[in-house]
Amino acid sequence: MEVRNRLMNVLVTGGAGFIGSNFVFYMLNKYPDYRVVCLDLLTYAGNLSTLETVMNNQRFRFVKGDITDKELVANLFKEERFDYVVNFAAESHVDRSIEDPSIFLKTNILGTQVLMDASRAYGVKRFHQVSTDEVYGDLPLDRPDLFFTEKTPIHTSSPYSASKAAADLLVQAYNRTFKLPITISRCSNNYGPYQFPEKLIPLMISRALKDDSLPVYGKGENVRDWLYVEDHCAAIDLIIHRGKDGEVYNIGGHNEKTNLEVVKTILKELDKPESLITYVKDRAGHDMRYAIDPSKARSELGWEPTTSFDEGIKQTIKWYLDNRSWWENIINGDYQKYYTRMYGSREGATA
Ligand code: NAD
Ligand code: DAU
């Protein structure tokens, strides 16, 4: 208890997932005077083995629980008296939201409300909502001059992005109505260590390593703006400490690639043939292009991405090669059933 009282106390929800776990490591490494509490339900996307290296760290505590559980959340806030709350916990996969939206609405919207109510009741320096560039909808492929700014209207395409947008609006409402100190970050596609192998990059790496077919949706022309996960963590660190109360910050590093370019880069790095690529039925409502204008984060916070896509994709592939057991354990479990369900009807079909 004495150790705790002298330290800044940060709640990281969803810290057993991809970006949340990278943020836990980032904060514990960077701030010796910070304590980090991770609240995570350990859904299919959460993996306690990811946090193995910090489990015995005196400045880290793991709590298994649901952000929609009011009583559990209130008790945790009462006990811990958090300084900062960073909300990563979410259902995060677009394809799953098309299959069944309900859990997305519950976790992503109601969970955010429960966390904000506790933040109000127990007083926090800052509630930070980790949002996404998907709240802006998409941009056309033939207008490379267009980018998402913080002023771009919210215009969502999938149940996932609609749930994230709803949460963003609620966060802004709590700021205006209840004066809850908040910030929101809207980041582009992340990649790096510990990403669940249902997302494009780890899915393609893990399947290519097994010489399995690589399911590219539609023609593979959709564009995503890729950011190495540590650059996202650095941006959130700057926002919670230096960002202005009530503000939204777009985060992205101008690394636009078509899906086909990404898949071909992975195949080249792994020395695997392009014949593994299989064009499958397109995602319903598939956003064409995401592209972030990060100039506000640059000018107001001095944020700059440090890892180029060329470097980051090599590091990521190496991580998946060096940590086979991490993703093989996932793939051998329930995920196999998900893959068959999700792609069984897609194989062979084209856009
Ligand atoms: P992820 O799916 O890898 O991890 C989500 C984590 O949240 C998991 O550990 C899961 O167990 C936990 N969780 C889910 N429901 C919960 C609940 N009810 N209570 C407590 N914990 C729960 O997700 P990610 O890719 O790391 O994304 C993290 C956040 O960043 C999300 O809010 C997402 O919308 C946002 N985001 C992601 C990206 C990206 O490219 N992955 C980009 C921009 C923003
Ligand atoms: O932009 C930020 C968002 O990025 C986050 O908010 C989401 O949580 C995160 O999942 C991600 O969403 P995307 O839908 O862009 O990511 P995903 O990895 O699912 O897909 C990336 C692109 O690759 C997209 O155009 C769909 C395509 N794709 C994806 C899969 C899984 C394929 O062609 N084949 C696939 O098998």
Describe the structure.
With 351 residues, the chain is an alpha/beta fold. It is built from 13 helices and 13 strands. It has helices at residues 2-6, 18-30, 70-80, 94-99, 102-122, 159-178, 200-209, 229-242, 259-270, 295-301, 309-322, 324-332, 335-343; strands at 8-13, 34-40, 60-64, 84-87, 126-132, 182-187, 190-191, 214-217, 223-225, 227-228, 247-251, 256-258, 277-280. Helix 2 packs across helix 8 and helix 7 packs parallel to helix 9 (259-270). The longest helix has 21 residues, at 102-122. The radius of gyration is 20 Å and the shape is globular. The termini are far apart. The protein binds nicotinamide-adenine-dinucleotide and 2'deoxy-thymidine-5'-diphospho-alpha-D-glucose (DAU). Nicotinamide-adenine-dinucleotide (NAD) binds at residues 13-14, 16-20, 39-43, 45-46, 66-68, 88-90, 92, 107, 111, 130, 132, 164, 187, 189-190, 196.
